Amino acid sequence: MFAPNLRPSRMALLTLTLLGSGQVLAHQAGDVIFRAGAAVVAPNESSPVVADIARFSVDNNVQLGLNLGYMLTDNWALELLAATPFSHDIALGSLGKIAQTKHLPPTLVAQYYFGQAETTLRPYIGLGINYTNFFDNDFTPAAKEMGLTDLSLSNSWGWAAQVGLDYRLNNDWLLNTSIWYADISTDVRFNLGGQAVNVATEIDPWVYMFSVGYQF
């Protein structure tokens, strides 16, 4: 005789259990988050006029961006940004492309995530340090014919900042977009007609990344 009264309660309990099991949880303390996607480096370069011709200009490049984050708490995290080597053409005014360089820019930031751990959409900001290693620097054959030789770019330490947004698809997968700014300064050294030249150059790129993430 009590069955009709018990069934609704059991149905309600079952419904709550199912809803609870399907709840999407955002980042929590102890989570490890791996993201991979397209990273666009857009230099915001500046330099003095070189050899009374023009200032250096550096083109954009797209590579595979990778980052690994660790949630210290529900709101604070550490993240390391890495990527496959970026390759940039260096131009000098009307001479066009005169050289090419590659670099790796590992960047470590402390992050703050806004909102609660249960939030599906979580914006965040980060601040940290960047190290940029330049390698495979070389002039084009045409530039060498003009007397440009022995190109090198010094490595750089500088600060970095980011803003980003995670959208949780489920308990494991997420979509991410982020924007980085890095303070990168380098001394561009080369010989011009046998004379040593050193040009202090600011690269200061914006980095735009669109990625898919997985949480462990």
Summarize the entry for a quick read:
This protein is mostly beta strands. The chain has helices spanning 3-21, 141-145; strands at residues 32-42, 56-58, 61-71, 76-83, 86-92, 97-104, 107-113, 121-139, 148-153, 156-168, 173-182, 185-192, 195-202, 206-215.
Produce the secondary structure layout.
Layout: H1 3-21, E1 32-42, E2 56-58, E3 61-71, E4 76-83, E5 86-92, E6 97-104, E7 107-113, E8 121-139, H2 141-145, E9 148-153, E10 156-168, E11 173-182, E12 185-192, E13 195-202, E14 206-215
Describe the structure.
- By secondary structure, the chain is mainly beta.
- The protein has a single domain, classed as Porin (Beta Barrel).
- The chain is built from 2 helices and 14 strands; from the N terminus they run αββββββββαββββββ.
- Strands 1-3-4-7-8-10-11-14 form an 8-stranded antiparallel β-barrel. It has a 3-stranded antiparallel β-sheet with strand order 9-12-13.
- A hairpin with a 4-residue loop joins β5 (86-92) and β6.
- The longest helix has 19 residues, at 3-21.
- It is elongated, with a radius of gyration of 25 Å.
- The two termini are 50 Å apart.
- Mean pLDDT is 89; it is low at 11-22.
Q: Which key phrases capture this entry?
A:
three-stranded antiparallel β-sheet, elongated, 60% strand, mainly beta, eight-stranded antiparallel barrel, 216 residues
